[in-house]
Amino acid sequence: MLFKVSCFIVLNCFRYSLLSHFIELKRENMYSYDYKREYQLGLETTILVKSYTLPDGRVIKVGTERFQAPEALFTPELIDVEGDGMADMAFRCIQEMDIDNRMTLYQHIVLSGGSTMYPGLPSRLEKEMLDRYLDVVLKGNKDGLKKLRLRIEDPPRRKHMVYLGGAVLAGIMKDSPEFWITRQEYQEEGLACLRKCGQA
Fold first, then answer.
1. Rounded alpha-carbon distances, angstroms, from residue 181 to 22, 84, 166, 178, 192
2. How far, in Å, CA of 200 to CA of 36, rounded?
3. By C-alpha distance, which of 104, 96, 173, 163 is closest to 136?
4. Which residues contact 66 (CB under 8 A, 6 or more apart)?
5. Which residues are in coiled coils (predicted)?
6. Are 88 and 132 in contact (CB under 8 A)?
7. Does residue 34 contact residue 124 with C-beta atoms inside 8 Å?
8. What is the DSSP pairing of strand 109-110 with strand 152-153?
């Protein structure tokens, strides 16, 4: 039994170590600007290639992977995922809202989460949102873009914004037991305890 526990601990430490190195590789090397231009540059030159030292001392070179991995956020088909990319989802979501609210929503698009930290992602999202608005709403009439005040907010702490928001909400609701599910309630009722929150 002790051997199984030791193996479990070692494997989890190994996974954590690999994950932390991947996160470092992602943070230091990946970006999301103009995919077509970067792809062409990657085919024609080696200017995009960077070296990264693995924990065991080996050095790997990353080139087109630096922008191809983040591209999946905009083009999920690259990783065999059906569905809209980030720009399409945001655009469709706003367009499905009441027409009186759309302009306000276009002015307050807030990025959050670690994958929004890629250099170039906010400007890339803005460009793609403008392109969709021009094509779908304005039907190519560029004069109409003057009225659209698109604003992508990319706060520096956006990597942890979801956690921070949850922490604020938890602080506000701490004295309201109807917003909490106790461990005992979950163990006794399972998912049925979500009815308490109006979710089941």
1. 35, 34, 15, 8, 11
2. 45
3. 96
4. 29, 30, 31, 48, 50
5. none
6. yes
7. yes
8. parallel
pLDDT band at 150 (very low <50, low <70, confident <90, very high): very high
DSSP 63: S
Strand partners for 53 = 59
Which residue shows structure tokens 């608005």?
133
Residue 171 pLDDT: 93
Q: Are β-strands 109-110 and 59-62 bridged in parallel, bridged antiparallel, or unpaired?
A: unpaired
- Domains recognised in the chain with CATH numbers: 86-155 (3.30.420.40), 161-197 (no CATH)
Tokens 């070692």 found at: 10
> How many residues comprise the chain?
200
What pTM value is reported for the model?
A: 0.73
pLDDT of res. 86: 96
